[in-house]
Amino acid sequence: MLARFTAGLFNIVEWRKAQKKLRLLFGALNINYMRFRELAEYFDKIQQVQSRLKMTGIIAEMLQKTIAGEIELAIYLSQGRLGPGYLGLEAGLGEKLVEESIARASGFLRKEINEKYKELGDLGLVAEFVSSKKKQQSLYREELSVKKVFENFEKIAKASGAKSQDIKMKMMAELLNSATPLEARFIARIPIGNMRLGIGDPTIMDALAIIHSKEFFQKEKKEVEEIKKSLKEKKEEKRKEELERKIKFRVRELVEEKYNIFPDLGKIARMLKEKGLEGLKEVTISIGIPIRPTLAERLSSAEEIVEKIGKCLVEQKYDGFRLQLHKDKEKIIIFSRQSENVTHMFPELIEAAKKQLRARQVVVEGEALAFNEATKEYFPFQVTIQRKRKYEIQEKAKEFPLKLFLFDIMLLENENQMLLPLEQRRKTLAKILKEGETIALTNSIITDDPKKIDEFFEQSVEQGLEGIIAKDLKAKYIAGARKFAWIKLKRSYKGELNDSVDVTIIGYYKGRGKRAQFGLGGLLTAVYNSKKDAFESIAKIGTGMSEQNLVELEKMLAKTKTEKKPARVESELEPDYWVEPKYVLEVRADEITKSPIHTAGKANGDGFALRFPRMVSFRADKKPEQSTTTEEIIKMFRQQKHVQIEGEKVEQMA
Ligand code: ATP
Description:
The protein is α+β, with helices and mostly antiparallel strands. The protein folds into five domains: 2-30; 37-192, DNA ligase, ATP-dependent, N-terminal domain (DNA ligase i, domain 1), CATH 1.10.3260.10; 201-282, no CATH class; 295-494, DNA ligase/mRNA capping enzyme (D-amino Acid Aminotransferase, Chain A, domain 1, 2-Layer Sandwich); 501-653, CATH 2.40.50.140. Helix content is 44%, strand content 19%. Strand 5 and strand 6 (377-378) form a beta hairpin. The longest helix is centred in the first third of the chain and has 27 residues, at 2-28. Adenosine-5'-triphosphate binds at residues 295-296, 315, 317-318, 322, 337, 367, 407, 442, 469, 488.
């Protein structure tokens, strides 16, 4: 017994010595691998700050401390993921299993863990609490490196088969065993995918811009001179600040340009770490990596469209879902509007792409919707959306086959098409598309006559479509941005805003009166200010929710409650509970008004608000950063005024 104990002790001593040696070796080679403890300390600091600027500064410092092999891991972990968003790689450990792992690692009973969870509402805090009060201490405590933590979560994600649950919990308990209380807080949050840090991709890009501004200043002398010429400030100190700001902005632009065609900030950060700004040149569009979609602006009449972009390609606007198809010989990958891999959902499109796309390598984009071959009519969106499913895929594909209307091409035989004008891209698209039943080009006309646009619009609406999208024939494919290359014109709904608005929930109010039983009486919602990377309040919403909606909402939101206002939220109203910006709702309203109580687009004391907002649906397909932006709200406000003035004119004339 004693012999075994001494041998065990000896092993631990040896183990600790080996760890120390490894650290010394890394130190001698000047490789400073990061311990997970340091990362957790940064996460803690990030969670403490309320200003986004400070948060970005801390992230920049954190990323500077990592070595090339770790920077991507640190980025993914900070967002509760195991890879870039489009891979959808999550550890996938439900709350129940996390509770069980915490119990195993700490010696507490599962029931005790569950009670603590009910009290604290966050498994991270539960893990931290029990870790500081551990009933059993592990002899083999290992100092955790970022790599080790990441690798364990990868194993958790990959485990499958009969014993997978056990393997997952073992991996998790192993990490929790070695973790300090602070580390435990974040380790428990990673598998749930909610780090409660609010680090979105824009914040990471800002941090990368901070890190590489100095390099830009030193290397890009010509461009820096140009920037210096454009400075407006007169005083030396202020000029310096303006220069710094502009350089940071420029570096941010360079990073974002690459992010739009290669949305993997982990890999981009790694290239930057290894090769500096020069590394960005190696980031190119690639088969299998989704390109961020170009977005449409709004205008309210055909005249305005022609005034803005002249002769244009006017396409029917189909109400289905947007898909990006990547073809590499016989291999087809399909991405959704949110850049998720949805290939398995659309077997008929895979077959059709193999037959109809005459190219070895190609990336194309279009809108898919269910089409009733019998009546030759498009099915409504409610039918099409049934095709986004995990089960009974083949059955539904037979019941509601999709038709894909292509409208763009981004890559052909290894050649980037995005920089070519639309007119040329459209011709190429027509050339590579073989006639067939499933894939077709969008119906379109080319014109500079507003009357023809109106006729085409009416025709489309009669066919049950949403309206039209007019496209600038000279424009390149502008990934990830809403520019006037595309302009949408939709059916208008009398007495309402002619488009719905997508808002992010930032807080909620307790139910009172009849709603007390649901625990939720209303929502505080916000639009997204993409320039500031902030969520600005725009409406309190209390209608449009069914009783079932209220119950579901309360359940969802209770899990994302935060004690303080989250760092990226800007609101002067105080809801009963703040929540992480996570859930997006589609709302309709009568109009946009100016309001002193909301912060959306606030200037001179007034922000914008939605008048009589009502919930239409959950937008589970949208991330908070894809909510309607403040800029769009301002434009919609102006257009709405314009429409009213037009209306008044008509009345006067009558
Ligand atoms: P957005 O995609 O602009 O964030 P949204 O999801 O609310 O907003 P809409 O405002 O209705 O969508 O309009 C844009 C969408 O219309 C495109 O993203 C695309 O899915 C769809 N669409 C339908 N027909 C076309 C077309 N011919 N060309 C481009 N997009 C089209």
